[in-house]
């Protein structure tokens, strides 16, 4: 049976403490337009090959129509043998994977065993189902454990599928086309990496929400190879002007120095017990 | 089990706005949009299903296994929301396993069906799950129970379910006869799910399982192109 301190069941129901604060914040912005949540608008893909699992992702994070982060890390660490790609709302994928990683670390420390991919999947499924799709995290979990090489997808409502290859995110249709064409069982490492790279590349080319570089993560029994970036975007901007200014660029017209008068009002000393 | 603890009502709030770069179907719930069927015969049951899972117009998984084992000789066929049915199946598997250990006996199919009904009926407002429970036990042999959306429970000799089942009501009415043997039931299940897939223009495989008394459970994946259309 699971140890009671591995997973704490949180209090039932939603926590609405922030609702009043959010309403106040809405009023502060112009025309009531609060900033949009950062979505990853992504292409992520995973492939099971002969010796393990290859996960790939693009690195663009969008906030509405603006690229908020050109080098965002979408492949999250869960355990030494398990990594997770996340699509959907960036905050949700970050926090969900962090929580999962913490819980599995506690389990490892308590039991002295490496976690299995199916454990990560079950914890995610429990949590996402409990929130009935309100947590916008579309996740691809891949890992190698004593039972073999596994690739799972978990959707925000909490349904799970185990599949040999997979693509998610806004660029998934383009990526899936490449995967459907090129996937075979028991691929070699280089073939699998090239297939995932081509799939993410197709997503980047065909989808506005995906772009910039390609990250690849290879998980095998021997270890993990997290290659970031695996391929850099050929569309890098060459800035013509430097935005650093020497001290003295702005002329100083007048200078006025006002010393702040501070007096000690109260002083208390606490001895540290260092014995 | 954490999944049993809270089932919250749906506030109908969407996570993503329409103007985002993400297509509509990514925020839709994954549904199985399905054909499932179960037939009992003297000595066991045959169950079958298609293998397609959709989110809106997109096929999320074309090799889904909708025939989920609940216990050694008891299966359930899932249709409706994928998340809901997986969660319910997990809950019932736990409850039935615990019950079976307490009794130190293989559980009855009727017990499994009642456990499904209990969950489906209590949370009927929040759930979207149509389930067929089928299996074999020593007391009553092969049995099929139907637990549709809403949480009704009724035992039937043959049952179909899922959104694609409407296409084979006529087929089942004309081809099912009481007292069929194992081979005929397998034929019926394979032909039934295949007809359904053809009628919905589904090019996916069908998954047929066969649960018999003493012998090991057998199952077969039939690819859509293999079966000749009669």
TrEMBL record, chain A:
<protein>
    <recommendedName>
        <fullName>Proteasome subunit beta</fullName>
    </recommendedName>
</protein>
<keyword id="KW-0645">Protease</keyword>
<dbReference type="GO" id="GO:0005634">
    <property type="term" value="C:nucleus"/>
</dbReference>
<feature type="active site" description="Nucleophile">
    <location>
        <position position="42"/>
    </location>
</feature>
<dbReference type="Pfam" id="PF12465">
    <property type="entry name" value="Pr_beta_C"/>
</dbReference>
<comment type="function">
    <text>Component of the proteasome, a multicatalytic proteinase complex which is characterized by its ability to cleave peptides with Arg, Phe, Tyr, Leu, and Glu adjacent to the leaving group at neutral or slightly basic pH. The proteasome has an ATP-dependent proteolytic activity.</text>
</comment>
<dbReference type="InterPro" id="IPR000243">
    <property type="entry name" value="Pept_T1A_subB"/>
</dbReference>
<keyword id="KW-0888">Threonine protease</keyword>
<comment type="function">
    <text>The proteasome is a multicatalytic proteinase complex which is characterized by its ability to cleave peptides with Arg, Phe, Tyr, Leu, and Glu adjacent to the leaving group at neutral or slightly basic pH. The proteasome has an ATP-dependent proteolytic activity. This subunit is involved in antigen processing to generate class I binding peptides.</text>
</comment>
<dbReference type="GO" id="GO:0051603">
    <property type="term" value="P:proteolysis involved in protein catabolic process"/>
</dbReference>
<keyword id="KW-0647">Proteasome</keyword>
<comment type="similarity">
    <text>Belongs to the peptidase T1B family.</text>
</comment>
<dbReference type="GO" id="GO:0005737">
    <property type="term" value="C:cytoplasm"/>
</dbReference>
<dbReference type="InterPro" id="IPR024689">
    <property type="entry name" value="Proteasome_bsu_C"/>
</dbReference>
<dbReference type="GO" id="GO:0005839">
    <property type="term" value="C:proteasome core complex"/>
</dbReference>
<dbReference type="InterPro" id="IPR016050">
    <property type="entry name" value="Proteasome_bsu_CS"/>
</dbReference>
<dbReference type="Pfam" id="PF00227">
    <property type="entry name" value="Proteasome"/>
</dbReference>
<keyword id="KW-0539">Nucleus</keyword>
<keyword id="KW-0378">Hydrolase</keyword>
<dbReference type="InterPro" id="IPR001353">
    <property type="entry name" value="Proteasome_sua/b"/>
</dbReference>
<keyword id="KW-0963">Cytoplasm</keyword>
<comment type="subunit">
    <text>Component of the proteasome complex.</text>
</comment>
From TrEMBL, chain B:
<keyword id="KW-0539">Nucleus</keyword>
<dbReference type="GO" id="GO:0004298">
    <property type="term" value="F:threonine-type endopeptidase activity"/>
</dbReference>
<keyword id="KW-0647">Proteasome</keyword>
<comment type="function">
    <text>Component of the proteasome, a multicatalytic proteinase complex which is characterized by its ability to cleave peptides with Arg, Phe, Tyr, Leu, and Glu adjacent to the leaving group at neutral or slightly basic pH. The proteasome has an ATP-dependent proteolytic activity.</text>
</comment>
<dbReference type="GO" id="GO:0005634">
    <property type="term" value="C:nucleus"/>
</dbReference>
<keyword id="KW-0391">Immunity</keyword>
<comment type="subunit">
    <text>The 26S proteasome consists of a 20S proteasome core and two 19S regulatory subunits. The 20S proteasome core is composed of 28 subunits that are arranged in four stacked rings, resulting in a barrel-shaped structure. The two end rings are each formed by seven alpha subunits, and the two central rings are each formed by seven beta subunits. The catalytic chamber with the active sites is on the inside of the barrel. Component of the immunoproteasome, where it displaces the equivalent housekeeping subunit PSMB6.</text>
</comment>
<dbReference type="GO" id="GO:0051603">
    <property type="term" value="P:proteolysis involved in protein catabolic process"/>
</dbReference>
<keyword id="KW-0645">Protease</keyword>
<dbReference type="InterPro" id="IPR029055">
    <property type="entry name" value="Ntn_hydrolases_N"/>
</dbReference>
<dbReference type="GO" id="GO:0005737">
    <property type="term" value="C:cytoplasm"/>
</dbReference>
<keyword id="KW-0865">Zymogen</keyword>
<dbReference type="InterPro" id="IPR016050">
    <property type="entry name" value="Proteasome_bsu_CS"/>
</dbReference>
<comment type="subunit">
    <text>Component of the proteasome complex.</text>
</comment>
<comment type="function">
    <text>The proteasome is a multicatalytic proteinase complex which is characterized by its ability to cleave peptides with Arg, Phe, Tyr, Leu, and Glu adjacent to the leaving group at neutral or slightly basic pH. The proteasome has an ATP-dependent proteolytic activity. This subunit is involved in antigen processing to generate class I binding peptides.</text>
</comment>
<protein>
    <recommendedName>
        <fullName>Proteasome subunit beta</fullName>
    </recommendedName>
</protein>
<keyword id="KW-0888">Threonine protease</keyword>
<feature type="active site" description="Nucleophile">
    <location>
        <position position="34"/>
    </location>
</feature>
<dbReference type="InterPro" id="IPR001353">
    <property type="entry name" value="Proteasome_sua/b"/>
</dbReference>
<dbReference type="InterPro" id="IPR000243">
    <property type="entry name" value="Pept_T1A_subB"/>
</dbReference>
<keyword id="KW-0963">Cytoplasm</keyword>
<dbReference type="InterPro" id="IPR023333">
    <property type="entry name" value="Proteasome_suB-type"/>
</dbReference>
